[in-house]
Amino acid sequence: MINCLCCGAPPERSEPVITTPAHMSHETSETYTFVRCGSCGLTYLNPPVPPEELGRFYPDYYLPYRGPSAWGRYAPVAARGQAMTDRKRVRRVGRHVKAAPSRRWRVLDVGCGHPTFLRSLVDRFPDIDATGIDFVDTGWRDEPRNWQGITLIQSDPAEFTAQEPWDVITMWHYLEHDYHPVETLVRLREMAHQGTRLLVEVPDLESLSRRWYGPAWEGWHAPRHTAIYSGGTLAETLRRSGWEVVNRTTRGTLDTFALWWMSAMERRGIDWTASMESRFLPFMTGRILTAPVFALEGIVPLGVQLVEARPQTR
Fold it and tell me: CA nearest 46: which of 86, 89, 12?
């Protein structure tokens, strides 16, 4: 058992929230429990899987690893969906870049994975100094030509250092995976100046999708996710790390309908090792039929949250 990932309170001061099987996995029959800290309110996985054992939860059939290829002949359409997500993220960063276009902006993407966001960012703003870091280099090592003009580094974010401060730091669905979020955020604060902006997108514990799907909610993503943040606990984690929230929205960049769909498939118990090709047309039909509901994203908390933060004034 571990202490709270936000405030460090002992596990004795927490209470169980939910117990789930491993999501999107056929590697184990074990269950995993998320608890709520009685001191700060953070919901976190306790006990977590030892980091050295996490590899078995990222097999070759893991859907995010397969990407568009998982959808068979519909792969080109699925690829356009990822490109749309990247464009949303570029627009978020671009708001700051356009405010001072004469500067050479330094952007760091933490947990960059397959760095298509950085590729889109540099294509849109060629003068940006773009860097991505991740624990493993599997997302980019086999396609070096695709990432020209981008610096990609295999590193633990809590151990990463830089000679100059960053202007924008992004964390697109990384923080919920971090075993030491406060330590990581403190390190990033040390590499920021007073005008730096931090963009953090994570699942929203207070969302309707979590309430609707319960243990099947893909936001839990057990045991890969170590903590699930509400708006309040995300702000508190940032505050303890030297950051303060400037803006929060429940209209993120991730495809929220996809989160609902994956949760529905989790509840149905589908074979995640199989091709998703036969599920593509029902997926698209569901997207069209529910479009009026998902148009309310940003007004109604449907699945994700996006926070912009700045360094606290010293």
Answer: 12
Domain that holds residue 77: 72-311
* 63 within some domain: no
What CA–CA distance (Å, rounded) separates 70 from 79? 11
Q: Tell how far CA 85 is from the center of its chain.
A: 12
| Cα gap 19→282, rounded to integer Å | 29
Report yes or no on 154 lying in a domain. Answer: yes
Residue 132 lies in a domain: yes
CATH at residue 172: 3.40.50.150
Give the whole-angstrom CA distance, residue 36 versus residue 280.
Answer: 37
Longest CA span, the chain: 55
What number of residues does the chain have? 314
Question: Is the pTM of the predicted complex or chain greater than 0.85?
Answer: yes
Does any domain span residue 291? yes
The H-or-E segment that residue 31 falls in is: strand 31-37
Question: Count of domains in the chain?
Answer: 1
* Listed residue (269, 266, 265) closest to 282, CA to CA: 265
For the residues 223-230, what does the mean pLDDT come to? Answer: 97
**Predicted pLDDT at 61:** 84
